[in-house]
Amino acid sequence: MLAAGLTAPGGAAVGAAPPDLDRGGPGSWTKISTGGSGINFESSLHRTADGVLHVLYPRSSGADTGLAHTSISAGGAVTGQQDVLGTTWSIMDSAPVLVDGPGGGLRAVFGGQQTTSAGFWSDGRMYTATAPASGASWTLPAEAVGDSHSAYGSYGTAATTLADGTPVAAYPLNSSITWHVGTGAGGDQTFDVPCCAYDMTMVRDGENVWMAWYANGTGASANGTFVRQIYPTLGPIIKAPGSSVGGDSLPAGRVAMVARAGGGVYLAYCTGYPYCENVGLWKVGSSKVLKVPGTKYANLVALSAGPTGRLWLAWSDNIPVVKALRTDRSVGKLGTVRNVGMPHGKAAVYSLAIEGSTGRGDVVIQVGDGFWHTQVVAALTVRGKPGVWKHGTKKQKVAFTVTDAGDAVAGAVVKVGPKHCTTKASGKCVIAFPKSTKKGRLVVLASKPGYANAKSTLRVK
Q1: pLDDT at res. 23
Q2: CA–CA dist 345, 353 (Å, integer)
Q3: Range of 408's domain?
Q4: pTM recorded for the entire structure
Q5: What does the pLDDT look like over 161-189, one tens digit per residue?
């Protein structure tokens, strides 16, 4: 039910997507937002059961800010754009969150204040708007995820849902972290940290809800990236290993934390100071941190759960350029780094997000004039053994192995000139080269739909 004076948020369409928005697949950047954009605006990505990716983001209009939604097909095409609220608000969360909604739909969670006049939506709470799975129409119920009237000042909102769909939301403000379970009555829960906490993220791993945040307090114990289980029981605050050097650290945007398919909570963050020496990928509770190659000078980091236990990791650096990779199924090995590039003519990345549950990585960045989207696919790796042999001695059989982050890939086609073979379940196949094969280098290409091609060389001496 709507309060008096509130415009019904019927999901007013921004307009049909023009033909040039129907691009969006791997290697093609598409602007997916409308209206103005602040450089502190963050997007939130969520995929519904039909495979459609939904993007929630703030959109400015003069002094006020609203929320907007864009839907993107599994192939990367923009399929719809809607307003989430019927009006812009005087204060709006710069980092709203999109989670599961009722009946398999969508729920936007955000702190804000509609106007300075009295009314439910001007109480500064953590509000929620809902939509069916299509995202085509949005409703703003008279309910909030929590009682606090300070959520409009959030330093980086976080939200998730319990297994039954109950929303859980949290926000940091100065030294306090406040969270609430559900939209019903009942007091908020809080704890304090040394000032100040920012860029919060929340995930559910089985029945357990975890939150993570970045802190820039004084000294090693108050500076870096931190994580804590908050539900169903409150656990200890744990600092991510190497997330600060003494009492100094680097923020990397909304904290990159995911619950892996198959179990486990993972964080990715910058290590080193005064610049990022490398991105560390850490399983919470583990003593080992994987160093991600090619991440020196990274300034934003994003992480997503992929299928069969894999993770997608994306980062941007100060060139700027966006890069990404996918891990193996056990998150013990890292795949080939992919250069995702940048939209033409854009010179900065202010926020970064990735969603990889379909196998591809959907990447959304904010470059100052709004939000842009592209996709990235994992790359194959191909190796031949032996890689070198002597010309004219005998016919040479070369065994090729095609992998994805160390995992064998079946059905990949390996080509060397006119010769080719197809890998079996082991990821292996064999090509025989006649002893008349000329001296020099032979280019090896491996391909399979859904992957970027791999290239290597053999040498006949």
Answers
A1: 55
A2: 20
A3: 381-460
A4: 0.92
A5: 999 999 999 999 999 999 999 998 788 99
